[in-house]
Design goal:
four-stranded antiparallel sheet; 41% strand; mainly beta; OBSCN protein; 92 residues; Ig-like_dom_sf; disulfide bond; Immunoglobulin-like; 8 strands; cytoplasm; Ig_I-set; 0% helix
């Protein structure tokens, strides 16, 4: 939002410059790790991104996961957590 043209005007003369802001890419500070858990337990998957308030999307394969009774999705600052409750074979 700071990008744009800036002008310095003295009344008799002016000068102008354009400002372009390069946005740093989002990276993973903490990646996901594989889990092996017992049926009936809960899986806690957590990752951390390099910038706050970055939206993330959780997926199982190509299917997008949404919050439900089965899955809880949380964000605290840069940390995003998916909890899968009452694990069963289909959750693998």
């Amino acid at each position: 939002e700071d990008a744009g043209d800036y002008i310095c005007d003295s009344g008799d003369a002016q000068t102008m410059a354009s400002l372009a802001v390069k946005v740093a890419p989002v990276t993973f500070v903490k990646a996901l790790h594989n889990l092996e858990l017992q049926e009936g337990s809960a899986a806690h998957l957590s990752c951390e991104v390099s910038k706050p308030d970055v939206p993330v999307e959780w997926k199982k394969g190509t299917t997008v996961i949404h919050s439900s009774q089965k899955c809880s999705i949380k964000q605290e600052g840069n940390v995003h957590t998916l909890v899968i409750h009452d694990l069963n074979r289909a959750d693998s």
